[in-house]
Amino acid sequence: MNQRNPKSSDLSSTTSVAGQPAPVAHLIQEFTRLPGIGRRSAERMAFHVLKASPEDAMRLSRAIADVKQHVGNCTICNGLTDLEICRICSSPDRDASILLVVEQPKDLIGLEQVGTFRGVYHVLMGRLDPLGGVEPEDLAIQTLLDRIDDPRRNSREVAVREVIFGLNPNLEGDTTALFLADQLTSRSVEVTRLARGLPAGSQIEYASRAVLSDAIEGRQKM
């Protein structure tokens, strides 16, 4: 029996769970695992894949596979990279003596899109949250201190002279910043933080480029 390519009208009949082929139901289920994706959004995404050409669908599949197989964390800053040392840490055009500390790689990406900051980064891979069970040893705090104490551990072996806290302006972010500031009091580095152009309680990833640019330019001493 010959199979025919499904038309959009045919696809609408598969919206009920009982009428869905098993692979379609499985794809929808996997899409619902993505952050912020509900059942209806997952169905639209699955039907988009179904209607796409085989080449387009496989291009998406290969992109996902490439990310999982080739992207990891920079051995210096913990930012996302397909190399051992990311392009920011290895770039001679960046001022490796200025270190901007952020919580997650997505925060680094958001700040980079502004194009204002020309230093380097350190990604903590989280923030302190004692109630949630996140303690200092669960974050990349020791590697940050190592970069400050030993230039050989920093980007291009440059000594760090300023540390900027680019943590999210909420209770956990402020707690993490205060803890780090205490750890740095005995070290000969200037400690600053991004200006409060970032609204309290918000997330860096949702801030506009203008807000992030003002926050970088107007950073303050701790």
Describe the structure.
By secondary structure, this protein is an alpha/beta fold. The chain folds into two domains: 8-70, Orthogonal Bundle (Helicase, Ruva Protein, domain 3), CATH 1.10.8.420; 91-221, Dna Topoisomerase Vi A Subunit, Chain: A, domain 2 (3-Layer(aba) Sandwich). 41% of the residues lie in helices and 12% in strands. The chain is built from nine helices and seven strands. The protein has helices at 8-12, 22-31, 39-51, 54-70, 87-90, 105-114, 141-149, 171-184, 209-217, and strands at 72-73, 80-81, 95-102, 119-123, 162-165, 190-193, 220-221. The strands form two sheets. It has a five-stranded mixed β-sheet with strand order 4-3-5-6-7. A two-stranded antiparallel ribbon has the order 1-2. Helix 2 (22-31) packs across helix 3 (39-51). It is elongated and about 65 Å long. The termini are far apart. Mean pLDDT is 90; it is low at 1-16.
